[in-house]
Design goal:
Blueprint lengths: L3 H13 L2 H4 L1 E5 L4 E4 L8 E6 L5 E5 L4 E4 L7 E3 L7 E7 L5 E6 L6 E5 L7 E5 L6 E6 L5 E8 L2 E7 L5 E4 L21 E4 L2 E5 L7 E6 L6 E4 L8 E10 L2 E8 L10 E5 L2 E4 L11 E6 L3 E7 L2 E6 L4 E6 L3 E7 L3 E6 L4 E5 L4 E5 L1
Antiparallel strand pairs: 1-30, 2-29, 3-4, 4-5, 5-6, 7-8, 8-9, 9-10, 11-12, 12-13, 13-14, 15-16, 16-17, 17-18, 19-20, 20-21, 21-22, 23-24, 24-25, 25-26, 27-28, 28-29
Length: 356
């Protein structure tokens, strides 16, 4: 048994130790805040493509594309084609070059390209009358894939190897489409190229599936998912880590009160449902960003939220009607949505909290 004298010596030693020897400081991730810009044209924005800290392209309704080269202090507006086009996706290369994708049937699905900062645009491809494009993805090499709704028993995809020549591809997937299988043009995120892998999301059919292939693969393989499926339900956004690991977001776009299993992680041939974000309804966008920890970002007409993957904790970022979140590396994350909503994430320094 410890004597009183021995205990007193221990207490004196503790007092003599520096505070840091008794307590360790742990860095706790802090969620980002949103800086909202009120100098942007009041209309619906859906596509967003940050290419640097300063240069961001956005696209939306009324045939409009906009660009800032000074981090949102000022904006330039362009009209690549007719004013009734709806540009749901934009994929920019730098401050000069960008592709804008419009959606719709009757020839409204089109791809425009600029190489002079938006001052002039060229029509690169126009879909057939019964084609409806949803989204496109672009690789650093210049290869591009466009995901369209299937027609009958045919996939309607468009590919370009170099950004100049575009062609419809109907045999790029290892399996035929399901009845009515297509995609969702809710954020331009249903097709993505990441870490040398192409990935495409489907919905509106009996099963919600992902199509995935490596950069040198010939055909997309098909993976069935547990995401809610059916008319106006399925996967809206994808994020491949590699060909065997990815995240998907989505849900039922007809149910704005749904809050179950709208976000999934796939690894080792198994799906794991992630905790639901603090916004209801189908999720429209999905981005993974590493900034002093790994974060999943998502949004829909009821707001935006960030998941701290290390602690599995959600943070509500906004209640605004936000359709899309996209990032350039970890330095430039931008949000766009209805009524001219444009915002930028401002990352907070981790707080140092004492830990016994």
């Amino acid at each position: 048994m410890t004597s009183k004298l021995q205990q007193r010596a221990v207490n004196i030693l503790r007092l003599a130790l520096p505070f840091s020897a008794l307590f360790s400081l742990s860095a706790v991730a802090e969620p980002p805040e949103i800086e909202v810009f009120d100098n942007v044209r009041q209309q619906q924005w859906v596509g967003v493509s940050p290419v640097s800290r300063d240069t961001i392209w956005i696209s939306g309704e009324k045939g409009t594309v906009a660009r800032t080269t000074d981090s949102g202090k000022s904006w330039e507006y362009f009209q690549p084609g007719p004013g009734d086009l709806d540009f749901r996706d934009i994929e920019a290369i730098d401050d000069r070059r960008a592709y804008a994708l419009s959606v719709g049937t009757g020839g409204q699905s089109r791809i425009y390209y600029t190489e002079n900062g938006g001052n002039s645009w060229r029509l690169r491809y126009r879909g057939e009358a019964d084609s409806f494009f949803n989204c496109m993805a672009l690789s650093p090499s210049g290869e591009a894939w466009v995901h369209g709704d299937s027609v009958g028993d045919e996939w309607r995809m468009v590919r370009s190897a170099d950004g100049r020549n575009w062609m419809q591809v109907r045999s790029a997937v290892a399996e035929p489409p399901q009845s009515n299988e297509g995609g969702f043009a809710s954020s331009g995120s249903c097709a993505r190229f990441n870490n040398d892998n192409w990935m495409i999301a489907t919905g509106n059919a009996d099963k919600a599936r992902v199509l995935i292939k490596g950069s040198f693969g010939i055909r997309f393989r098909v993976v069935e998912t547990p995401m809610e499926a059916g008319p106006m339900a399925g996967i809206t956004s994808v994020w491949p880590i590699d060909d065997k690991t990815f995240y998907i977001a989505g849900g039922d776009l007809n149910d704005d009160s749904g809050d179950e299993n709208r976000l999934w992680h796939y690894q080792n041939n198994e799906f794991e449902a992630l905790p639901g974000p603090p916004i209801k309804g189908a999720l429209y966008s999905l981005s993974l960003v590493d900034h002093k920890g790994s974060w999943l970002l998502t949004s829909n007409p009821q707001g935006a939220a960030a998941l701290d993957l290390q602690n599995n904790e959600w943070f509500k970022l906004s209640d605004a009607n936000i359709w899309n979140i996209q990032c350039h590396g970890d330095i430039s994350c931008w949000l766009v949505g209805k009524d001219g909503y444009v915002g930028r994430l401002q990352w907070q320094a981790p707080k140092q909290r004492p830990k016994l």
